[in-house]
Amino acid sequence: MKNIHPAFIVLAMTLSLLLVAFKIAEEKRRYIILLEQNREYQIISQEIIDLKKNWGNPTAARRAIQRVRSSSLLKNRIKKYSKRANKIEISFLKLDAPRLDFVSNQIFNAPLVVDTFSVSREKNESVANLFVKVDKP
Question: Does pTM surpass 0.70?
Answer without folding.
Answer: no
